[in-house]
Amino acid sequence: MSLAELSTRLRAFAAARDWEQFHTPKNLAMALSGEAGELLSLFQWLTPEQAAQAMSDPELAANVEDEIADVLIYLVRLADVLDVDLVKAANAKIDRNETRFPRIKDA
Amino acid sequence: MSLAELSTRLRAFAAARDWEQFHTPKNLAMALSGEAGELLSLFQWLTPEQAAQAMSDPELAANVEDEIADVLIYLVRLADVLDVDLVKAANAKIDRNETRFPRIKDA
Amino acid sequence: MSLAELSTRLRAFAAARDWEQFHTPKNLAMALSGEAGELLSLFQWLTPEQAAQAMSDPELAANVEDEIADVLIYLVRLADVLDVDLVKAANAKIDRNETRFPRIKDA
Amino acid sequence: MSLAELSTRLRAFAAARDWEQFHTPKNLAMALSGEAGELLSLFQWLTPEQAAQAMSDPELAANVEDEIADVLIYLVRLADVLDVDLVKAANAKIDRNETRFPRIKDA
């Protein structure tokens, strides 16, 4: 499924629950940040080494996937209500970063 | 461009700058949360009505697109280093949410 | 109890649980941000009017106090491990803000 | 200066700039989370060892103090508009944590 199809699914999900009234840019930016905070909390007491092995612990892996999913869900909803093309915006930013941060080795 | 292609582009971008050493799960979760906070700050003093019109102000719109891009970029990098399929994880979460939050109207 | 006494209490609390090893600046900044995100999530679906009345709902009020407490706890711990005087730092910042943002009315 | 005096100073600061209209609980929770995100960003690419030495770099130290100050400022403003006693709330939370997390050594 593409990101566009995910966006359509989420739009229908919100409509079927009469949640569009809550999905304002301000509220969605808050929800996105809150979920990013929950994701963060999964890693906060881990050493860098433990965090790098997070996905080999099934319970932690499930929580990580769950929080990553929530971040993507609110990001896609926010982009939809603001009419922002997510992948296009990311590519435009990477184009600018190509100039700001020169390559130091051949890939 | 698909999300998979964006992920490949970002992986090459990091490799060409020797940034893989910084792109640990813990650091990327921090960067993601920091960028979500910057996005949040664009809306913090706006009324709900002003926030809903954010994209009709060209300067604010550019900043919103820029911060949304940064959130997506770090989310895609994090999913890549953790080997999480972003869209699959989101769909699995929406499947669970379909059960948790019943529809109240036909879409 | 003053903020200095709270800091001393929290330092002893951490020591008695052998948690100093986890209370690094990086980890505490993550915990602080995660708790700020939980606080945010309490307000995310509320209208401005509902949020302004948050403390008249006993259950919500208890959650708000709980999350505010968590933010302060991690902020005080972070300031302690970094040896930052919180109130002094805040006053120095307000001094700078007095210049940046002129008064528009007599208080 | 005590936290109560800091709160009074911040209240007067907001009043003198007609900012009370912006200092709603929802907006202040957003500002708090945004500033916690900026603090986080100062540590995101540092190793745990580098982060532990943050205050020996004068420029980084100044930025850390600045962001810590901003977090405290918005936390104090939020507690003021919600009429929450910050230190009392923190102590009540630590009381509960004393039970949840037993001591493992004598302090």
Automatic annotation (TrEMBL), chains A, B, C, D:
Entry GO MF terms: nucleoside triphosphate diphosphatase activity
GO BP annotations listed: nucleoside triphosphate catabolic process
One Pfam family linked to the record: MazG-like
InterPro entries, sorted: dCTP_Pyrophosphatase (IPR052555), DCTPP (IPR025984)
Top-level taxonomic group: Bacteria
Protein's name according to its UniProt entry: NTP pyrophosphatase, house-cleaning of non-canonical NTPs
